[in-house]
């Protein structure tokens, strides 16, 4: 069935057309393989879980401009007021929002004196401050130890009686197999900070950082400290749009000298934080689709014209007893020969391009699966692009051959 | 003759509509992708400082202790900025800090709003070429003896007071009355080169107030604060005295000598600080100072993000695939028309004429493809702006594209046409005359 030899010699006879097809496919393989590798890498990044019930947690800030307010008392009143709103499930103050792109981070030490011999620093981690409602409001899962007791909540940062809950990735990285519960850490002062719990997952604010999964939660009601407050409100998704209005109204009714801003669910923050990655995925997907479209339409166009040019040859072959299938096969095999050559060279080019990208930009190495899958895909797409005009060629009647064109 | 070729080209295009359509499609898609990525790149890579780029330098100091940070911090401690302000300026200089708060007016119906506010020294306006519609920057004295003065933008003026010259009127920022001393023309450099780290493409502040108010008003910072060691801060004064970095400093110079001279002054300053126990790292005073011009600063801040560079590269690779594609199609088409060329050659057309005619035809295809490509790019940018909330500044079609697009489109098409046109004009008349 496969008469490859005459096909190759006929390809070599008219070099430029097949060579251009080869070149086009080779470049396509290199581009598509690298583009899909980048797409996949971005999708993996975007898929990482924050540990938070993202769509159910609403975040916002309050800024007060009245003078002589007792911030601690005001913060307590505000949280109670939020809890009393219809459909609010739970509320916590905080100093930063997950996946928001801005916040606090720190590393703690295992000795009070930072210059002590053999002092060991924890990995860098997000530094959350919240009260006993923090875990429940965000929907975090405690996997070890316990939550803060209400009487443990502090209103200042940096003093005695600090407790901390850590995220599991941080615990695993720093303590390994050992349980972190009961361990003591320091923040460069004599005050010990006791680890009392581990949550399964809680990401920090910066999706591009290499410590995204590391978090500390301190037992501090942060809104007590200044004129600005930040809050998490947990509610069912359907209630969140109306809550925004209700919250703003309630705050201004309590004290009109303030502004409530930046209502965002954690989900919305996530979308904003991953916007560039989403954009990259979107553009690269379009590039791949268009590349395949342009390539296959171009290929189909060329085959179509080849068919016209070779009408006489095809007619002759048909007259000599070639079946329709043989004619279609001829075009397909021609295509496969070019595809194979282009696939091998394109695969090598893809790897080279991948190396360049890795060297100059922060991209991981190109996995060999991508060029292989791309080549396989190219075989399928070009088969379709060749098959349709070739089928038309096969209908050429043998009688044509006897006519002069 | 050109018009005649145009006419021939148009007829030829009409004769093979599918093939021509495929070529136009390939070019327009290639151009669409390339121009879209190139446009975003150009917008990001723009340096608004222009000629002044080498004269405006941002000051960086290695203020951290040993074994802490590996690079110069982007920001400075408040105490360093205060001390730098006291070094006699060579040309101009400004301390800087981003804050914000609630803005109100005497009009009770005006809804209080949160605004980002920039605190600067009066030289800022000259250094960064902000032009005034009414009034002027505050007096030099206000840089030393804090005054509640403000410079606002024309559109904020409109919002607060209605149009016109409202210099002398008062508004409230966090309940403090500020007197408007100057109203600037709307000014929004993109990227925001005076402070790209707080969002290089968000809008410039519309309120500027004297930096000297910072310690009095205990302004919050609307930007980063970093510390290399733990410092307890019980009050605002502790923050001002701390080794945390959160403020910025820019200086302007006229020539390289001034810069060298200033560097010496900075090194002397570091030396003096070392003597009182600051700048404890093992660096020499000369190596503890760094002056970075606007262009370098934009680069250090990665204002053009990596993704975009990759996309521009892939865009051009895509275009090259389109080029090869068109080349193949043209070759097919021209070879098919070889008999016609044979006849024309036989009746006296020169090779040059045949070649020119085909190049004109290819150029027309390139032009049409380019026009469609530009429309595609325009649409793509609109979609990106819409779907991804990409900053408006990046999704406007840059003026240069009106020139670049047809150049790239026609250039690509002509490049693709060269070989096929050369093949076809080499056609020997005799071959085809015989078979006819």
TrEMBL record, chain A:
Transmembrane segments: 279-307, 327-350, 370-388
Pfam families: FtsX, MacB_PCD
UniProt keyword Transmembrane helix, yes or no: yes
Localization in the cell: Cell membrane
MacB-like periplasmic core domain residues: 84-249
GO cellular component terms attached to this protein's record: plasma membrane
Name the record gives this protein: FtsX-like permease family protein
Origin species: Parashewanella spongiae
Lineage of source species: Bacteria, Pseudomonadati, Pseudomonadota, Gammaproteobacteria, Alteromonadales
UniProtKB/TrEMBL annotation, chain B:
Segments crossing the lipid bilayer: 21-41, 310-331, 358-381, 401-425
Protein localization: Cell membrane
Record flagged with keyword GTP-binding: no
Domain spans labelled ABC3 transporter permease C-terminal: 314-429
MF-aspect GO terms: transmembrane transporter activity
Keywords: Cell membrane, Membrane, Transmembrane, Transmembrane helix
Origin superkingdom: Bacteria
Domain MacB-like periplasmic core: from-to ranges: 20-268
Name assigned to this protein: FtsX-like permease family protein
